[in-house]
Amino acid sequence: MGLPRTLVNINAYADGASYLGVISEFEQPKLALATEDWRGGGAIGSIPLDKGIEKMEATLTLGGHEKALIRKFGTTSVEGVRLRLVAAYRADDGTPAQAVEIYVGGRFTEIDMGKDKPGDATEHKYTCAVAYYRRVVDGRTEVEIDVLGGVYMVDGVDRYAEIMEILMG
User: Fold this and answer.
1) CA separation for the pair 141, 98 (Å, rounded)
2) How many helices (H) and strands (E) in the chain?
3) Which letter, b or e, does each residue of 8-30 get, where b requires 16 or more Cβ atoms within 10 Å of its Cβ?
4) CATH number (domain holding residue 13)
5) Rg (CA), the chain
């Protein structure tokens, strides 16, 4: 019988700057296929057809006021902000901790600065529309999605390579 790997601790980097001790929470992008239902003649039901990847979004929550991140709001580049989450997961069964890194390229579409009250802790939440995503576990890339570059890698297989080869001639 196994035990689940649970998050032990995290750090976040934004454009290379570390937010160790400041990061409160990171909501990873949801990976979802965009689908459209199709029911052809003779079929007894519909099936979802693959239409690409749904829009991805990540949320970074930090304690306190970080002017360097606020200054990134409104960048004109869809990959104007680079985020990296480093996480350590561990099962309480004696197995080694697992390193998980999430790389995100996108731009802040919303900054929620919450409420300010003297003497209370403050948190700012940065919502990032994601154009690039990569998940690395123990040094191995498990998923990489580059929306503009046409890369859709899962477990070492580029599931969009055939399409890009046709398009690039």
Assistant:
1) 14
2) 2, 12
3) eebbbbbeeeebeeebbebebbe
4) 2.30.110.20
5) 19
| Structure confidence by residue, pLDDT tens digits, 107-163 | 999 999 988 888 888 999 999 999 999 999 999 999 999 999 999 999 999 999 999
Residue-range definition of the domain harbouring residue 81: 6-32+52-140
Q: Would 147 be classed as within a structural domain?
A: no
The residue whose two tokens read 């006021």 is 65
Specify the 3-state DSSP secondary structure of 163. Answer: helix
Token code pair at residue 109: 């579409």
Query: CA 30 to CA 12: how far, in whole Å?
Result: 18
What's the whole-model pTM score? 0.91
- The first and second tokens of residue 155, run together, are 């477990």
Q: How many domains does the chain have?
A: 1
